[in-house]
Fold:
Amino acid sequence: MMEEYRYITLMEKPELKEEAAYWFQSKWGIPKEAYLECMNAYLDNETDYGWYFCLCDEKIVAGMGVIENDFHDRKDLAPNVCAVYTEEDHRCKGIAGNLLNMVVEDMRDKGISPIYLITDHIGFYERYGWEFLCMVQGDDEPEMTRMYIHH
Structure:
């Protein structure tokens, strides 16, 4: 059976906020309060930086957000796509790529470009129009991390 995926912003389904914050916390170990703070700012129209999800049977199977800085030393490179995650059993189905395209389009519609992200992955983001920009130092990280840009 073909799974049906639905792509939404948190603005379209704000009741997802608590579940989403817990979901991200379980994936990245960042306190849910940090996610809730960013999500509330978005829902209260204090920022244009949004939160994006893929749902399957109304359950979050992938998500990402946009924040000012994703815990690195290049505070001038903003905003940053953050917390990119797809559940293992839903990977390799184009979900993360669709979400990335959704983020780029949403930010561009709001007049926000370029946008950035940090990752250790090589080859994935390039498929969706992202370009390697430079190496950055992550907060409390001994190794440098790859910074990508999307115009």
